[in-house]
Structure formats: structure tokens, C-alpha cells
Amino acid sequence: MQPEHNHCEQKISYARAALWAPFYAVGMAARIHGAVTTEPVKAALRKLQTLYPSMASRVRVEKDGTAWLTTEGVGEFSLEVRSRTSDDDWFKTFLEQEKIPFTFGSGPVARFFLLRDDQTTDLIVVLPHVVCDGYSVAHAMWDAVALLNDPDRVVTPPAPAPVIGWQTIPHSPYNNLLLRGLVRVVNRTWPNRRVVMHQGKYEEIHRQYWARQRHDLLSFGLSPAETSDLAARCKQHGVTVSGALMAAFLMAQNDARPAMRGTRREITVAVNIRDRLVQIPGRAVGAFASSIDLVIPSRSDASFWELARLGHTRIHKLLNNRAAVLKPLVMSELDPTIADSLIISIATDHISRELRLFTRFFKVTGESRCLNFSNIGRIDLPETGAPYRLTNLLPFPPLVPGGGMVLNVLTINGQMNLILKFRENRWDKAAVAIIRDQALSYLTGA
């Protein structure tokens, strides 16, 4: 964020279309060995607020819909302390909190929770996806624990994070030419579709959306030995771990619902675009992510490794297709007041004929996707030292309309965490448990 007098500001551009979306909460739980008292955490969060000002921001919206993250007039992070009664409390907190609107008008947009018992503490953050991606929040939470262990550390505001736009990411002028042309036509010809959003209207559509939704999730993983063995077998078969993960869960869906065998599957895969920017953001907090859509014909006679190879090939083909990777960037060209109208329509399930043009491109309605998939990657955490040892980071993904299930993967110090979140009107928990067990069987070679 850019320093402005005694506060920081940053224009929301790349992810502006999703600002008011009620379904884009993300989060991370930092699991710490031992019971952590409240005051040291509050002190660490005050420093984290300086280190990552976008997390400590509010949203300022201009009359034309232009939106800014600003720290002007924003107080300290909130921290709610709760008793920790089970290993599942962290995700139950997230499932509860994604139904609660963010305080965009006053900030800070990030909310923190401290769940603790005598042996373990979970420090949790939940915040809007428009502020950061999973990779960003993982490193931010490691820094929070590092600050907890080093109370004398002096922190300074970071360098401004790079802005994502057509000027800052290499592309061809022909990339998404048709879609960009459509956006320009819409900006000129849809004046009656413009909506000026504010906190009250956002809270109303948030309430309407969550009155119709029921989400749940399963959290599980592979041991370090199983994670290492999977990587070795993937290398032997010439596929990525992501290809194997995608194949395992597609085949497991077949096992849970045999009628799906041989059907055409649509999958959305999250893409880290940090290395594609002219200015590499490093560990800066931001929404440095895109997505690609692929279709996998789930042949009933395909073996696990054949399907993994097919997924691997199609993912890499699309990753080399700049038009596919940069398609979400087109939405930054849409008039923000029209984008807000689109979000209201999706959230309230009232899609006009005109707006269906966009839903075809971005697949945020209907029942088209069988899986949203995000592999945040591998993070090797340095020792944070005594007295508070960080033992794990557990991600919480959004589940957007148009999909019934999302798989989020994060490998910490060689141990793979898998988070399978699902919409209960599409999948019941018994079927999802079968998917989990069968997928683990494929991944471990059992």
C-alpha cells in the first residue's frame, strides 16, 4: 500500500469485481503448541497491523464505484478469545464467520480469533479474498507467530505491493480480445445496470445469500512419509502432485456416485500469478491469483495414473495459455457499478438474460463444476523458537456459486493438509466421507 501522510491507501483494481461478494471469505489457522495468553497475541497483532496494512484497512468507495483500501481512521485488529474443545473448532469457527459480513465501512477487514486449551492454541484470521490469497495469508500468519516469539522486534511498513493490470503483467494485445470488447460494450450500453454499493446494502445481500446456503468441510491429510512417497510416485509417472490430487478426487467422486462415471467434468484450478508480474511481489499480501477452467472426460476405464496424466497435461497446456490465465483480469475493466450489480444478481439468485453472458464466461451459476481445486504449494516454516512453536497452518477456502466442492491443499514442513469443503445441497456428508477415504486410498497407493 502507498503511504499517504499518516496512513496507507491502495486502489482495488484487479479483484474489484468481487469486493462485495458474500461468498469470498478466506482464512488461515496457525496451530501453536501450548496455551498462549491474550496480551502477547494482542501485542503481536499490533505489529502485524504495521507489517500488513491492507489486512488492517477499511474500504472507501467513491461515487463512480472506484474502491480503495485505506488505513485512515481504522482501529486495532479485533481478537476474540474462545475455549478450544476439539481439533475441529478451527474450521467450525470459519464456517460460522463466513456467514458474518465484513465491516468494510469501518475496518479492519481482518478478524482474529484465539482458540486455546492447555496443550494447543489456534490463532485464526478470516478476511475477504479481495485483500489476499491463500499463499499471502499463510506467510502473514507465520509472521504473526514469529512476532509473538520476538516481542522486541521492530517492524516497518512494507514496500507497496505491485498493482495487477495489463501494464504490469506480460500479455499479447490479442489476449481475450472478444471478452474485453464485450466489457467495453457493456460499459457503454448498460447504464441502467449501475448500482452504488454501501455497507448496508452489502449486509442485506450477504444475509439473503447465506439464508440459502449450508456449507461443511472435512479436514484430513497425509503424513510426511505419505507426502514424500506421493511426490516420488508422481515423479516416476511423469505427472505433478496436482495432477494426481485432481485424479484422486475425480475417481473418488465416481466411487461415491457411480452415475458420474464416464461423464464430462468441469474443474476450476487456482493459479498463482506472482511470478508472471513484472514486479515480483515476494511475500507481499495481495490477491495474486487467477484461475483456469478445464474439462476432463472421466473415462470409466481410465486408471488412476492415466487420469492423473490427462489432468497434468491439460493443466500445463492452459498454464501456457496467457489468455486463459488472464481471463479474470478482464473483469477489472468492467465498470465497478455494473460489477456490483452482477454480484447482487448472483448473490440473490436473480440472473437477468443480459448478465448470463458473464456467467457463461466465469461459471458462477448453475451446477457446472464438479470441483474447485487450489494447491497453495509447499511452505517450509523456519523454527519460530521458544516459547511458542508453530506446528501447522490450516487453510480455509471460499466455495463460490457454480461449484459444489472445493479442495484446498497446503503442505507444511513436508506434511500435506487437505481441506474438502462442500455445499450440502449437492453432497451429503456421508458421500463426502467416502470421497475422502477413496481419494486417500488412491494417493497412498493402498
Q: What does the largest sheet look like? A: 6 strands, mixed
What does the overall shape look like? globular
Mean model confidence by pLDDT: 90
Report the uncertain regions: none
CATH superfamily heading of the largest domain: Nonribosomal peptide synthetase, condensation domain
Task: Please name the CATH topology of the largest domain.
Answer: Chloramphenicol Acetyltransferase
Cα-to-Cα separation, first versus last residue? 49 Å
The helix-strand sequence is EEEHEEEHEEHHHEHHEEHHHHEEEEH
Structural class: alpha+beta
Q: What is the alpha-carbon Rg in Å?
A: 21 Å
CATH class wording of the largest domain: Alpha Beta
Fraction of residues in helices? 25-40%
Q: Tell me the β content.
A: 15-25%
List the main descriptive attributes of the protein structure presented here.
446 residues, alpha+beta, Chloramphenicol Acetyltransferase, 2 domains, six-stranded mixed sheet, five-stranded mixed sheet, 12 helices, 15 strands, globular
Blueprint of the fold:
Blueprint lengths: L1 E3 L2 E6 L12 E9 L4 H14 L6 E4 L5 E4 L7 E6 L5 H9 L13 E6 L3 E9 L5 H16 L27 H13 L9 H12 L4 E8 L1 H14 L3 H16 L7 E9 L16 E9 L6 H16 L2 H4 L10 H13 L7 H7 L6 E11 L9 E8 L8 E8 L2 E9 L5 H16 L2
Parallel strand pairs: 6-7, 10-12, 12-14
Antiparallel strand pairs: 1-2, 2-5, 3-8, 3-13, 4-5, 7-8, 9-15, 10-11, 14-15
